[in-house]
Amino acid sequence: MPKGIPSATVSRLVIYLRVLTDLEAAGVARTSSDHLAAEANVSAFQVRKDLAYFGSFGTRGSGYTVAGLKRELRRILGLTRRWNVIIVGMGRLGQALAAYPQLDQYDFTLVAGVDVDSSKVGTRIGGLNVHHLDDLPALLADQPVDIAFLAVPVEAAQAATDALVEAGVPGILNFAPTVVSAPPNVTVESVDFLAGLKRLAYFLSKPPVDEPALTS
Ligand code: NAD
Fold first, then answer.
1. 137 CA to middle of ligand 1, Å?
2. Which of 142, 149, 117, 141 minimizes the C-alpha distance to 130?
3. Which alpha helices (H) appear in the chain, and where do they start and end?
4. Hey, is 62 helix, strand or coil?
5. Which of the residues 91, 137, 209, 213 has an alpha carbon 20 to 30 A from that of 9?
6. Mean pLDDT, 10 residues at a time, over the chain (216 residues)?
7. What whole-number distance in Å separates Cα of residue 180 and Cα of residue 174?
8. Rounded to the nearest whole angstrom, what is the distance from the C-alpha of residue 119 to the centroid of ligand 1?
9. Distance from C-alpha of 114 to C-alpha of 172, rounded to nearest angstrom
């Protein structure tokens, strides 16, 4: 991925890829920036601008082939290889993630679970062998691990992150509603369910835009 690409562009590329995957499944062979824009709820200008960061795709006037653009987006997003994933924290969320059926379809392979609870370590949960956090180095010596889903309580999130960094895991998807710090060579993405809920509460508690707010 070239440097300086806005993170919002990367998020939109993921959406364009999903739209293209649906189009391909529906047997559609060609698409346009207008169509992609309508499906992704952005402007056609935005679609063209996002794609232009990576080169020129498609033909002016006749759009893009669905298969060709999908292949390019998969390449740009690094989805042309398999990624090994571990789940750190095999509690309610960790177990739900282990049961998520579509990870493999996107080339993310769950390879192990990690926990500190002695009643879980050494068992199999959701089809994964559960290792102790202290055994991360041995786990990584056995097989490469690219990504960790961090599904531990807030109080444990930084210590678990430190252990992942120390063991050499380069990517962390943090589900704990807290900020964790990691050195620049480790990429952390957060999935903050509570923050989304609070944003929703904020928008729902606003008066509708076309009704003037009551004045006292
Ligand atoms: P949970 O208590 O059910 O499970 C947490 C697991 O983490 C336990 O198995 C525990 O033994 C393990 N753990 C604790 N410290 C650890 C460490 N240092 N290293 C490895 N494992 C450790 O909690 P949960 O409901 O699964 O939530 C996990 C995280 O995900 C929390 O931060 C929570 O806020 C967040 N989250 C949960 C949900 C949900 O629906 N359950 C939704 C969104 C976000």
1. 21
2. 117
3. 7-25, 33-40, 44-52, 66-76, 92-98, 136-142, 154-167, 193-204
4. coil
5. 209
6. 82 95 95 94 95 83 90 92 96 96 84 98 96 97 96 98 98 97 96 91 81 56
7. 8
8. 15
9. 14
Helix, strand or coil for residue 181? coil
Residues 6+ apart with CB under 8 A from 84: 109, 111, 143, 144, 145, 146, 147
**Ligand 1 geometric centre to CA of 88 (Å):** 8
CB of 196 within 6 A of ligand 1: the answer is no
Q: Among candidates 95, 128, 135, which has minimal Cα distance to 111?
A: 128
pLDDT reported for residue 3? 66
DSSP, res 63 = B
Bridge partners, 108 (sequence order): 83
pTM metric for this prediction:
0.85
| CB of 171 shorter than 6 A to ligand 1 | no
Q: Rounded CA gap, 126 and 75, in Å? A: 31
- The CA distances from residue 98 to 102, 106, 128, in Å, are 10, 14, 8
**Which of 123, 134, 125, 128 shows the shortest CA–CA distance to 164?**
134
What distance in Å separates the CA atoms of residue 189 and residue 149, rounded to the nearest whole number?
A: 10
Q: Residue 170 C-alpha to ligand 1 middle, in angstroms?
A: 21
